[in-house]
Amino acid sequence: MAQIPEPKTVELEDEYYHVRFRDPDEFSEIRTPDWAAEVAEEIETGSKVRTGHRKGSHDWDVQSVLIPESVGKSDARSAAKRIVEKLNE
Asked: Contact 71/78 with Cβ under 8 angstroms?
C-alpha cells in the first residue's frame, strides 16, 4: 500500500472544500474519475476525487479530494483522508 500523505491545505471553493494532498504542479494531467467518486461516496455523499498523472511517470495519485461545504472544514479534512485510505486498500 502506498503511503498516504497528510493533507497540505483545505480551501473552500464554490460549494466544496478542496482538500489538497499533493501540489497540482507535480502532475501533467488531472482528472476526476467516476470510479474514484463511487468510493468517495461511500465515505461522504457528494464527494469527488481528483487524480493526477505524475510528470515523467506512469503513476496516477490522488491530488485532491472535494468534500461538500456542508460537512465543515475540520470534518472535510478527516473525510478526505478516510477516502484516500479507502482508495489505497
From this structure: no
What local confidence, expressed as pLDDT, does residue 88 receive?
87
User: C-alpha cell of 54?
Assistant: 505524475
Q: Which residues of 69-89 are buried (b: 16+ CB within 10 A; e: fewer)?
A: eebeeeebbebbbbbbeebee
Report the length, in residues, of the chain.
Answer: 89
Closest CA to 65 of 27, 25, 8: 8
User: Cα–Cα–Cα angle for 79, 84, 88, nearest 5°?
Assistant: 145
Q: Is 3 helix (H, G, I), strand (E, B) or coil?
A: coil
Q: What is the pLDDT of residues 11-53, one digit of tens each?
A: 999 999 999 999 999 999 999 999 999 999 999 999 999 999 9
